[in-house]
Amino acid sequence: MKARILAALLLATPVAAQDNPLQNTSTWDDLRDSVLGLSAEVPLDLAVLDLEAPVRAHEAAIVPIRLTQPADAPPVQAVTLVIDENPAPVAAEYTFGPAMTPLDFEFRVRVDSYSDVRAIADTGNGNRVMAGRFVKASGGCSAPAGKNMAEVEATMGQMRWKSDQQDGRTIGTLMVRHPNFSGLQRDQVTLLNIPAHFIDRLEVRQGDEVLFTLQAGISISEDPVFRFAYRSDGQPIRVHVEDTDGNSWDQTFDVVNG
C-alpha cells in the first residue's frame, strides 16, 4: 500500500531526471521493424521530447512515466509508447490536441522485466523523434490486482477530476476506476487466471476540442491516472472511456479545483 501511495505522489510532482539512458538491445531492433514498421533508427532529441522514469521502480505495476517538452519545441501530434520487454510491447498510442503544447503529460504503466521504455513521437510531415529510459522492474504485468472482484464490479467506470493553475497553464488530473486486467494475473481467492479486461480507448475533450486520446493495451496500470498541462478556455472537460468487454462511460467535469 505504501508503494502505491508513493507512486501516486510521484504523479503529483515532477519526476527527477535520472541517469538511466536507453540501452537499445536486439529486442528493439526486432520491434522497430516488425511491430512499428520503422526501417531506420529514430533519433533521440531532447530539444523536442524527454521521457522521465525511475531507474528502479518502487512497484512494477505502477511505474510513473512523464513526457515533457521545452517551451519552444514543435508540437507533438502523437506518441507511441513501447515497453520493449513486455508481453505486448506497444503499451499505448496517444494523440494530442494543440492545447496540450508544450507537452507535460504523466501516467503509470506496468513493466514486466528490466526494459527500455521509449516514446516515439510524431511531429508531423513524417518527422519522428524518440525519448526513453531503461527501467529496472519485474513482474508488473502479472502482479495481483489491488481490489477484490466485488469491489471491481462496484467501482468500475467511476472517474475523478481535479484541476489547478501552474505557470499560466491548467494542470488537470483524471483518475478512472478500472482493474485493467492484463490476462496474466490470478484471482487471489480461486487462483484461476483472470481474463484480460482493460480500457482500450480513452478520449478527453475540452468542450468539443480534443485534448488527448489513448488507444491502450495491457500495460496501462490498474485505476489509471493521467496528469497533464493544457491551455484552458474555461469549457468543461468531457471524458469518454471504452473497455474490451464493450462497456463505455461518459462524464463531464467543470474546470475547478477539487
Outline the structure in words:
This protein has 258 residues and is mainly beta. It is built from three helices and 14 strands. It has an eight-stranded antiparallel β-sheet with strand order 7-6-3-4-11-10-13-14, with no helix packed on it. It has a six-stranded antiparallel β-sheet with strand order 1-2-5-12-9-8, with helices on one face. InterPro entries: Fuse-rel_SoxYZ, Ig-like_fold, Ig_E-set, SoxY, SoxY_sf, SoxZ_dom. Residues 1-17 form the signal peptide. This is Quinoprotein dehydrogenase-associated SoxYZ-like carrier. It comes from Paracoccus acridae.
**Helix-strand pattern, N to C?**
HHEEEEEEEHEEEEEEE
| CATH class group | Mainly Beta
Distance between the termini: 23 Å
Report the average pLDDT across residues: 91
pLDDT < 50 stretches: 1-17
What is the architecture at the second tier of CATH? Sandwich
- The amount of beta strand, in percent, is 35-45%
Number of individual domains = 1
Which structural class do the helices and strands define?
A: mainly beta
Helix content: 10-25%
What is shown here, in short?
The chain has 258 residues and is mainly beta. It has helices at 2-12, 26-34, 149-155, and strands at residues 50-52, 63-68, 78-83, 90-96, 104-109, 115-124, 127-135, 159-166, 169-176, 199-206, 209-216, 225-230, 237-243, 248-253. The protein has a single domain (2-253), classed as Sandwich (Immunoglobulin-like), CATH 2.60.40.2470.
